Description:
Layout: H1 4-26, H2 33-54, H3 67-86, E1 93-94, E2 97-98, H4 99-119, H5 134-159, H6 161-204, H7 209-222, H8 234-262, H9 265-290
Helix pairs in contact: 1-7, 1-8, 2-8, 3-4, 4-6, 5-9, 6-7, 6-8, 6-9, 7-8, 8-9
Amino acid sequence: MENYYLKIFLYTIVLVLYVYSFYALYNAKGKNTFKVGLYITCSSIIIIITLLILFDKNISSYFDIPVLFSVLTIIFCIILFIPLYYLKFLNITYYGYRLQDTIRKYIVLVAVPLITIRYFGNDLSFLFYESMSLSSLIFALIIICLIFVVIFFAWNKVNRYNLLFKMLGIRRYIESLIIVCCIQLIHVGIVEEFFFRVFLIGILMPLGEAEAIIISALFFGVGHIFFIKSNYGFRRMSVRFGQCITYHTSIGLILGLMWTRINSFLFIVIIHVLINGSALVYPIAKQKFFTDKKLYPKGINGLKY
């Protein structure tokens, strides 16, 4: 009962954010009805499954770090993130990603939390020790199967993978998928899973497993709102905010649940990479192949759909 009011407070925040996000997406101008339905349906299913499983039991804390110091570390990460994001110190890009952004993410999301963890003498050996029970393995396989079902059926409708296969051929598609997955592994998978799952959930676990997962998922969702451009109007900003909450927060919930129940850092990194890679292979494929003058002399506009 000690965290009863905290649970109510968190569940209320999540409910309000999702209701507002569903409303913003449903009333979006020029909306793709299927895509909106996909956002709402998938995120609703993830929330229900996550909450049902979380009613099971809590598990012990990973890190023994004072609450005040944990809060100060998070605040410091946020403060450090802002100047490093706007500071231009390295003009190198790879497939639309800036190398300085990758360096910034490792400094803020890995180096700072790692220093905090090691300062208080916490052991990180559990990151490299894979010990999955049979029930955890079955749960992991079910999650992987569900992800692939969503990718190849739902995302096909949104991103038109059939058209992508037709234009590129299976070999070039696989090449693009490998490229985007490698980028996501380095730029996103390792750094974000370490900070949002390992570190945040680890320091929040004394509050309870449900509280730790929900708070880290909210941080994960809100942390992606910086993609919203400053020149967006209120209506468009609301839609992008809704997309961030329904997509990223939902993904944060399921990844947090997998981390606490499966305890495999490698597994959640791979899942994160597969989700992002499958969703982003289309623009990467266009960037890499559709502008190739030798393959398509007339460019992408010269192709007959």
